């Protein structure tokens, strides 16, 4: 069959050339569709269910929310395991499915099970599914802040929206913000009602999470003495506010042939409306809210906050849809944010603070550089060794065409382009089959010309090209088959290993298969078209030089083989011994340039205290001349995709380009050392320094952010805590161990109100 394909390729060479152009066009289109990322996504098939119940403590959350949700999910087809987190007012259950499970099917099943279990959950608990993203879906962060806090350095015009001379802020709606809480709540309002809806409309965005600010609320601060004087209770005040905030419709009124919709709109729209709301009537005189208290702008109790360069801000995270192109989505998100900025209120601006596309572009630039240099090196070697420019060009053309065909195959098999997949391409292997066919064709054409004593006719050239290709079929097939078999075991990997290394094997095997097809079709056809005129089969100068020096050594090796055999054995033994001194790493370390500093405080630290300590850290780090930007996410965000307790913070340090670093800073290690020096005087923080993607990788693989983790299982939490401290003490003595610590499981104080039912009765 292969022989017929070779003969057909030579006879119908122009058709093969045309089909090759079609393949090139298709490959160029496919390469624009190829998902690009820095590293492969190792996230398993998982669905996260987050439940917020602010009135419940950790124990009640576990009993009333987490356990019922986990129980409801049991038995879903494809479910492998569930794991959960129960914190004060928050529960997160992660359902992990097999890799063969369709993620949309899994989410549908989880939604149905949650609907069935709704009656077993507390009335105020509303489970929500996390966005359809992955652990590495955090591709774009942006901050929402005032450009000139409190109007400093800005010319103010009283009465116009913006900063006022007294330091207050006048919104375009006419609301005056005088307190820091009100200003922070306004930033959050801008994020939730102006920016977030537009950012979610960007193609490929699964969701937008927010940290910081306050969810705006109107608070009534009752005067208890005034309530008592009117004979009112706080409960009656709350009920009155509920009755005062209504909107009702009453169908239509027909008049003069027209229908008029009747609607009574009594919704509260401003502080003034709330102040004028009637609570009760005493002696025919209405008692209004302003008579029994005051109304102020407040914020809901928050579980997380955000900060930027030492000031509070709203930090938002754009989550990418599963399987989308991170570079394209991040770039589109940045462009959308630029458009949104034009319509924001005065002095409010949204600025990108972390953009994954920058890292992806740098990674792809590195891969492109290496691939280009590798391709050029192969082409140069081909020119030098083949001694025929046209033959070398035919062989070199296999490289770009193979890349385009590989891109189409990667799209078809759902493999993304990253360091692991694209970095595995070896052009020497790719052109191997083409080289031997081209070289054999040159040999046969030259010998036939020498035998005939004239230039060959077209039929003779076709015949010799076909025979030359057929002679090389067996070594080509066997060579490609051996390489294929080498990579087949990688396809059997499962879990994290499979997601990491299988794309590399698949990409290389697709490239080899593409090159093999080209060597049987494109290469013979191009030889028949291009290689004309006189063909000389002479050894090039590098080959002659090598043979002159190799022939004497070969003669001695054949005459006295034992010294050479013993030498080979010695080299092998030395290599085995040297291999034992090599370090071991699951994946090569990727320099992301950006740095994350995770800080932990005592478990009892409130979100406000944690935020204040975080602002001190940012003020210390932003003074480093090599640092361009510092921002932080503290505690838990809205969607709970990255649940952290109030005492934990993630600080992102974005360095400047290397050419702007001070002279004393030579490498990233110097930056890390200087960061640690700035952190040392700030007591009360336990610090872990990593990189953004590295941190998420560790968390996805082991459930913790450290490189190495030891997990204990048992029934007695106190006993396990003591044992964990002993293990940590032993781990600190291991050479090379850096920051070693045991997870804190206690220390969060609570006020337990014990009910005396007899007294209450």
UniProtKB/TrEMBL annotation:
Location within or outside the cell: Cell membrane
Principal location class: membrane
Residues annotated as transmembrane: 12-31, 375-399, 419-438, 477-496, 502-531, 564-583
Keywords assigned by UniProt, alphabetized: Cell membrane, Membrane, Transmembrane, Transmembrane helix, Transport
Gene3D superfamilies: Multidrug efflux transporter AcrB pore domain, Multidrug efflux transporter AcrB pore domain like, Multidrug efflux transporter AcrB TolC docking domain, DN and DC subdomains, Multidrug efflux transporter AcrB transmembrane domain
Membrane topology: Multi-pass membrane protein
Family as reported in the entry's similarity comment: Belongs to the resistance-nodulation-cell division (RND) (TC 2.A.6) family.
PANTHER family, A to Z: CATION EFFLUX SYSTEM (ACRB_ACRD_ACRF FAMILY), PTHR32063
Protein's recorded name: Efflux RND transporter permease subunit
């Amino acid at each position: 069959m292969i022989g017929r394909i070779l003969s057909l390729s030579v006879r119908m060479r122009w058709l093969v050339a045309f089909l090759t152009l079609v393949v090139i066009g298709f490959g160029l289109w496919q390469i624009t569709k190829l998902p690009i990322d820095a590293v492969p996504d190792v996230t398993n098939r998982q669905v996260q269910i987050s439940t917020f119940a602010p009135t419940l403590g950790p124990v009640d959350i576990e009993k009333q929310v987490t356990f019922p949700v986990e129980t409801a999910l049991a038995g879903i087809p494809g479910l492998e395991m569930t794991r959960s987190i129960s914190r004060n007012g928050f529960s997160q259950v992660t359902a992990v499915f097999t890799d063969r499970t369709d993620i949309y099917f899994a989410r549908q099943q989880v939604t149905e099970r949650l609907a069935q279990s709704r009656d077993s959950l507390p009335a105020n608990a509303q489970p929500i599914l996390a966005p359809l993203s992955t652990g590495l879906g955090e591709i774009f962060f942006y901050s929402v802040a005032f450009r000139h806090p409190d109007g400093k350095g800005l010319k103010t015009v009283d009465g116009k929206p913006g900063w006022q001379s007294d330091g207050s802020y006048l919104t375009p709606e006419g609301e005056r913000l005088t307190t820091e809480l009100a200003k922070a709540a306004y930033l959050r309002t801008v994020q939730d009602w102006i920016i977030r809806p537009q950012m979610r409309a960007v193609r490929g965005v699964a969701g937008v999470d927010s940290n910081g600010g306050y969810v705006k609320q109107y608070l009534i601060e009752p005067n208890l003495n005034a309530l008592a004087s009117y004979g009112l209770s706080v409960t009656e005040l709350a009920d009155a506010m509920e009755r005062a905030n209504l909107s009702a419709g009453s169908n239509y009124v027909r008049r003069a042939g027209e229908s008029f919709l009747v609607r009574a709109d009594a919704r509260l729209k401003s502080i003034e409306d709330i102040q004028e709301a009637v609570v009760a009537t005493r002696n025919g005189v209405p008692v209004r809210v302003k008579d029994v208290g005051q109304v102020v702008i407040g914020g809901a109790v928050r579980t997380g906050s955000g900060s930027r360069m030492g000031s509070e801000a709203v930090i938002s995270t754009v989550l990418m849809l599963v399987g989308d192109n991170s570079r394209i989505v991040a770039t589109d998100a940045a462009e959308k944010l630029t458009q949104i900025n034009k319509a924001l209120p005065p002095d409010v601006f949204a600025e990108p603070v972390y953009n994954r596309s920058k890292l992806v572009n740098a990674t792809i630039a590195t891969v492109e550089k290496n691939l280009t240099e590798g391709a050029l090196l192969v082409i140069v070697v081909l020119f030098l060794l083949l001694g025929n420019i046209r033959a070398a060009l035919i062989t070199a053309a296999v490289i770009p065409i193979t890349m385009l065909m590989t891109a189409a195959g990667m799209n078809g098999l759902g493999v993304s382009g990253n360091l692991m997949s694209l970095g595995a391409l070896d052009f020497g292997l790719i052109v191997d089959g083409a080289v031997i066919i081209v070289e054999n064709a040159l040999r046969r054409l030259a010998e036939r010309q020498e035998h005939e004593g004239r230039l060959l006719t077209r039929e003779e050239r076709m015949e010799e090209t076909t025979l030359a290709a057929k002679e090389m079929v067996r070594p080509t097939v066997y060579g490609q088959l051996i390489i294929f078999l080498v990579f087949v075991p990688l396809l059997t990997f499962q879990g994290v290993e499979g997601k990491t290394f299988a794309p590399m094997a698949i990409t290389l095997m697709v490239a080899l298969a593409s090159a093999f097809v080209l060597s049987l079709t494109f290469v013979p056809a191009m030889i028949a078209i291009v290689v004309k005129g006189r063909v000389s089969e002479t050894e090039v100068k590098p080959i002659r030089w090598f043979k002159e020096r190799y022939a004497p050594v070969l003669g001695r090796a054949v005459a006295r083989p034992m010294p050479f055999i013993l030498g080979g054995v010695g080299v092998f033994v030395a290599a085995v011994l040297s291999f034992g001194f090599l370090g071991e790493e699951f994946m090569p370390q990727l320099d992301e340039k950006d740095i994350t500093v995770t800080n932990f405080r005592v478990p009892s630290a409130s979100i406000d205290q944690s935020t204040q300590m975080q602002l001190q850290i940012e003020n210390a780090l932003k003074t480093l001349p090599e640092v361009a930007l510092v921002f932080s996410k503290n505690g838990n965000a809205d969607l709970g995709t990255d649940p952290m307790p109030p005492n934990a913070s993630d600080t992102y340090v974005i360095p400047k380009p290397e050419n702007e670093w001070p002279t004393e800073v030579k490498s990233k290690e110097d930056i890390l050392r200087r960061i640690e020096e700035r952190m040392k005087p700030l007591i009360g923080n336990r610090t872990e320094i990593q990189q953004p993607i590295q941190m998420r990788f560790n968390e996805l693989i082991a459930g913790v952010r450290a490189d190495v983790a030891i997990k204990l299982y048992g029934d007695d939490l106190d006993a396990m805590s003591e044992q964990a401290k002993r293990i940590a003490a032993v781990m600190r003595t291991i050479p090379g161990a850096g920051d070693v610590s045991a997870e804190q499981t206690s220390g969060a104080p609570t006020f337990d109100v014990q009910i005396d039912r007899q007294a209450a009765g």
